[in-house]
Write a structure and sequence with these properties.
- It is a single chain.
- The chain is an alpha/beta fold and 214 residues long.
- 45% of the residues lie in helices and 12% in strands.
- It folds into two domains: 14-115, 3-Layer(aba) Sandwich (Rossmann fold); 143-212, Arc Repressor Mutant, subunit A, CATH 1.10.10.
- The protein has helices spanning 22-34, 96-104, 120-165, 169-182, 187-197, 209-212; strands spanning 14-18, 38-40, 62-67, 87-91, 107-112.
- The chain is elongated, with a radius of gyration of 26 Å.
């Protein structure tokens, strides 16, 4: 995994506090202000009322404090996977169903109720950096899946070049890799571009073979 830059300055963050606990909201708002974060006013959620999750959140600027004692939806709106920004779960009841609901909505840190101002920073630190780490991991997994899908183009290009040049597959792979490096792309990207150029053979054009023999 790429080295992760640890966030520890939360000035400019916009916090959304979704709770029905007025005291908790006030303590959080005051603590966040001291940390340089802005609190966007949200109406208190009534007992038994389903929480409406915001759909305009940014991972770089927003953070949500979400009360697990409320009626929570199972997923975020407009999101296929995970939370759109860091989430801190406010925990009153430690019932597994409550904790599971917060976890499924992407809570990267928990704060026990009644809320204490002394744990706000550490909870934000954990939630923000866990969210950032998960984003990096998801990107890397996506890149690996894309490279795996493109391996078929590498196999076809190697077989094609070995056949038309009468060389071993190892030599064909080395030639393709050298050409990919010359073009400053991965071998998967390079072989995919060859397949798009020559969709019938899925391999390198015959007139280009001479430069690959070098």
């Amino acid at each position: 995994m790429k080295p992760l830059r640890i966030a520890q300055n939360f000035r400019g963050r916009c916090a959304r506090i979704l709770t029905g606990d007025k005291r908790a909201a006030e303590i959080l708002a005051l603590s966040l202000h001291r940390l340089g974060a802005e609190t966007i006013p949200m109406p208190l959620v009534g007992a038994g009322q389903m929480v409406t999750l915001p759909d305009d959140l940014s991972p770089a600027t927003d953070i949500v404090f979400l009360d697990g004692d409320l009626s929570l939806p199972p997923v975020w709106p407009k999101q296929g996977e995970g939370a759109p920004c860091p989430v801190v779960g406010l925990v009153g009841s430690e019932a597994p169903s409550r904790l599971r609901a917060l976890f499924q909505l992407g809570a990267g840190a928990f704060m026990a109720k009644p809320i204490s101002a002394g744990v706000v920073f550490s909870s934000m630190f954990l939630a923000v950096n866990m969210h950032n780490r998960n984003a990096v991991l998801q990107q890397e997994v996506g890149d690996l899946r894309a490279r795996r899908r493109d391996r078929v183009h590498v196999i076809r290009a190697v077989a094609h070049l070995a056949r038309i040049d009468g060389i071993t597959e190892d030599d064909a792979y080395a030639a393709l890799r050298r050409e990919a490096m010359r073009n400053r792309v991965s071998i998967e990207e390079y072989c995919r571009s060859l397949a798009q150029t020559d969709p019938q053979d899925k391999g390198p054009p015959a007139e280009s073979n001479k430069k690959w023999r070098a």
